[in-house]
Amino acid sequence: MRSLVSVIIPMYNAAPYIRQTISSVLNQTYKEVEVIVMNDGSKDDSEKTVLELQKEDRRIRYQYKANSGVSDTRNKGIDLCTGEYVAFLDADDVWLPQNLEKKINALNESGKQWVFSLHESIDENNRQLQVAMNNFRPYNVVDNLLLWEGDVVPGPCSNIVVKRDFLGDEIRFDTSLSSPADRDICLQLGSKGEPVFINEELWQYRLHSQSMTSVNFKVVDEMVRLYKKADEKDWFSSPKLRRKALSNVNLILAGICSKFPSQRKRMPVFLLRSVWYSPFNIIQKKVLPFFSKNKKK
Q1: How confident is the model at residue 266 (pLDDT cuts 50, 70, 90)?
Q2: Contact 104, 3 (CB under 8 A)
């Protein structure tokens, strides 16, 4: 018998998608799964759908809890896991049938402890979207996540499969973070061991108006907190990389602040920090492209 995979699905008001999401796990070619649905205080009909599916398939475990946010909900799901492997799936995303089979095989063949793959993008009506990845770098995970110069682990919380022992008692989702929580969990995992990457689209990432990926100004303080954490955890591989990463993130935060009137007064501070950490980085990213663009005119 093959090893059990615990699949954690945090759910909050996911009635339009939860049936399809859970079904995509039950229909995997890899059948040894327990589906742990963590209801984070939903106020819609999500619970009704899950309980209906549970009657049809005993592999579904259901847990209701008071609303505490997605990171805390995932952590409570980890505590309930009984499998050798742990996988995460957001309540609106979909796995293609061979997702688990290929990821578990990749872990066994590589001897590594966690794995991720490519994905397709879909909309609310399951129509495929053409969304290009930006400067994709699925290697040197910690360095590339901290540099923030492109995509590294796409949609990690529906993508990652990890050995339960590798998570141990110390790797958990940071409950003080929301938008950067995905990046943080990958930094925690990557600092402990490099993953195996499968160059194949094995799941579907749903883009819609309610997606957490929509930028909001709260991400600014959370990203500042994340990079302070990176210093505390000694995640930067060198002083040079640290300077460039902090220059990059402050430049990005300046851009985010510029989009919100209440945050615009903070923009000059982040710009100055970006220059202070690496003047050459700013010249390379902003000054040279500006002159190159105007020279062509």
Answers
A1: very high
A2: yes
Q: Which CATH architecture has domain 5-206?
A: Alpha-Beta Complex (3.90)
Q: What is the pLDDT of residues 188-241, one digit of tens each?
A: 999 999 999 999 999 999 997 655 444 567 889 999 999 999 999 999 999 999
* Separation CA 144–CA 136 (nearest Å): 10
The reported pTM is 0.92
Sorted by where each begins, the domain ranges of the chain are 5-206, 238-296
How high is the mean pLDDT of the chain? 92
Contacts (Cβ under 8 Å, ≥6 apart) of 212: 70, 178, 179
- 22-66: pLDDT as tens digits: 999 999 999 999 999 999 999 999 999 999 999 999 999 999 999
